[in-house]
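can u pls check wat happens w/ 6-diazenyl-5-OXO-L-norleucine
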Amino acid sequence: MEERWLQTLIDGLHSRYAGVHKGEVANYIPELGKASPDHFGMAIATSDGKVFETGNSDTLFTLQSVSKPFAFGMALEAFGEEKVARHVGVEPSGDSFNSIELEKVTNRPFNPMVNAGAITVTALLYQKYGDQALDRILTRLSAAAGRNLGIDEEVYHSESKTGHRNRAIAYLLLNFDMVPEEVEPALDLYFKQCSILVNTRDLAIMSATLCNLGKNPVTGEEVFDLDAVRNMLSIMFTCGMYDYSGEWAYRVGVPAKSGVSGAVMAVVNRQLGIASYSPRLDAKGNSCRGINVCTDLAQELGLHTF
Ligand code: DON
């Protein structure tokens, strides 16, 4: 019963928005500009391991910023809250994802969801794991998705070649001792982490791993500590949609994370992992269809936290 009901719901939302052609595909990373603006996939995974999908749910795309909460969770587990807090804050920046602004007194990036904070987190992981760091990240994200993930070499090279703004941010962070000396390999790791390939179904399962208190509900594998999950979801709630985070919390009311590839992952605590992929973005870098379907789902299923 539940099966048909949810399937019908996402099929209906898919057809409601497939014909809406608002937003532009990101092209500041040239390789991302090749994505089809018409691709549109949705998937939902439940905390008891059922998966529903519709549209282009098999189409692969790169995680981009959706990798950030997962890397943050890994850093929290590896270093503990106190050490991580010395390098990155937990306040919404109210600014765009690629802002070069840092906190006034501490010189920390505002939070781990904006590029500056995510580069800091990844630099910490690089400092700890060195050349093993990419494998560590891939292994952990693969456990969250329930299958082996790899990276998109073209997207990685494309961003590595053109990511001058992120390079500038990283060197500013070095200036304030927020990241260790080895800036270039840390940036390289960040670009690779952003280029991890998933499909919408994978993303729904990764999201459901967070909704299920860190345990992948499909494979049964424990992927993240409960404390890390609580911190990841808190930051996603306040900062996950960049300078749309306040409006998202108001209208949708669940933790979420977007990426410039067009991915959106929303987490309904203890219930559902929701994922959407559609590369048409609004001016803030969030997927237009992703925002629409999550807003409608929240309304129709009463998902808002309050
Ligand atoms: O660092 C960048 O600019 C990209 N690799 C990721 C940015 C991103 O996904 C922002 N999302 N809306």
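The chain has twelve helices and nine strands.
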